[in-house]
Design brief:
Layout lengths: L4 E5 L4 H13 L3 E7 L6 H4 L4 E3 L2 H5 L6 E4 L6 H10 L3 E5 L6 H14 L3 E4 L6 H12 L5 E9 L9 H4 L7 H18 L4 E7 L10 E8 L3 E8 L9 E5 L2 E5 L5 H6 L18 E7 L2 E7 L6 H14 L7 H12 L4
Parallel strand pairs: 1-2, 1-4, 2-3, 4-5, 5-6, 7-10
Antiparallel strand pairs: 7-11, 8-9, 9-10, 11-12, 12-13, 13-14
Length: 340
């Protein structure tokens, strides 16, 4: 791998600790130099030698840093990414890229003008369960696709402590912006832009100011219907992925293990990282000679590191980042779309 990229992390909250720092520290394509910690200084306890700045301004003033990871609250993404670009840094922005498609377009335009890369972190494309579904669809074994369901089910009655997710006064709030960006990205990475879509949202938790349930119906060519659903009061999770075609069906629970491993301080370079637990197979049902044949499908290894490898390749080799600007604009247009 060519010269590593000197990188700074804007926040050492949950996403910084779990989804970014372990990869920056173990992937040879990066030098994890600094983090912004406005209050408690804890990052260097885990990563000795790491520089901890008191503010984002100090982080951006570090001339050695080439790449900034913007992993702050949703409503700050546009402003902080803008400031990073003006400071001469490439940016990797947590999903959602911004609150509106107009903001994302402005960031992409500025990046091109300054010859800097603007990349969006959509890690669930590299989940083992999603990769399993992708492989089955691309194999053609399901025939012509008819119906697809992607969903994320959770049960959390309490209102969360993060105001940017729970307050109606903060742009980019609610479950739609939190988990909807993942579900939409998965579909458009496979199928592209839908012909049309409709949206339903609801708030079921007591005193909730924001949506804690949503359902999107996406319509694609050849009468393919796609349904995206998530809720915070689903006591019994359903299959996260259900795909029906003219020749068969594929059903898969959400079984990616990378987040749980990272929360247990298992680093990405450890043996067995990303390998699903035994018994986590998907169910493939195909029709051969009018007979139903059922197969168990073992998922590929989860690979968040592939996203970081793509970041390195994009910056050092000017390669196309796999999450395209066009896909991000489509995603944000769906997120900001007002239900009829």
């Amino acid at each position: 791998m060519s010269k590593p990229i000197v990188t700074g992390l804007m926040s050492y909250g949950m996403s910084g600790r779990i989804f970014h720092a372990p990869f920056l520290a173990t992937n040879p394509g990066f030098i994890f130099k600094a983090v912004a910690e406005r209050n408690t200084k804890t990052a260097a306890l885990k990563y000795p030698g790491l520089k901890s700045y008191n503010s984002i301004d100090e982080l951006l003033a570090d001339d050695e840093i080439e790449l900034i990871i913007v992993n702050t609250p949703n409503y700050t993404h546009y402003d902080f990414a803008l400031r990073s670009l003006h400071a001469g840094k490439h940016v990797l922005i947590e999903k959602p890229a911004a609150v509106t498609s107009a903001e994302a377009k402005a960031l992409f335009t500025l990046g091109h003008q300054l010859n800097l890369k603007v990349m969006i972190y959509q890690n669930r494309r590299y989940n083992s369960d999603f990769l399993s579904v992708k492989n089955v669809i691309e194999s053609g074994r399901l025939g012509k696709l008819i119906e697809i369901h992607f969903r994320i089910d959770r049960y959390r009655m309490a209102i969360g402590a993060k105001a940017f997710k729970e307050s109606k006064e903060v742009p980019g709030n609610g479950l739609m912006y939190d988990l909807g960006s993942h579900l939409i990205d998965g579909v458009i990475s496979l199928l592209g832009k839908p012909l049309s879509y409709t949206k339903t949202t609801a708030a079921h938790r007591p005193d909730s100011e924001v949506d804690d349930y949503f359902h999107l119906h996406l319509r694609y060519p050849e009468q393919l219907n796609v349904y995206l659903t998530s809720g915070l009061l689903i006591a019994e999770p359903e299959h996260g992925f259900v795909v029906h075609g003219t020749a068969g069906s594929y059903l898969k629970m959400r079984t990616d293990i990378q987040e749980l491993q990272l929360m247990d301080d298992i680093l990405p370079d450890a043996d067995g990282f990303g390998v699903e637990a035994a018994g986590s197979v998907g169910k493939l049902v195909v029709i051969n000679d009018l007979q139903k044949v059922v197969e168990e499908v073992v998922a590929p290894t989860g690979a968040y590191n592939d996203l970081f490898n793509a970041v390195h390749d994009t910056i050092r080799n000017d390669s196309a980042f796999p999450v395209s600007e066009e896909q991000i604009i489509w995603q944000l247009e769906m997120l900001e779309f007002k239900e009829q």
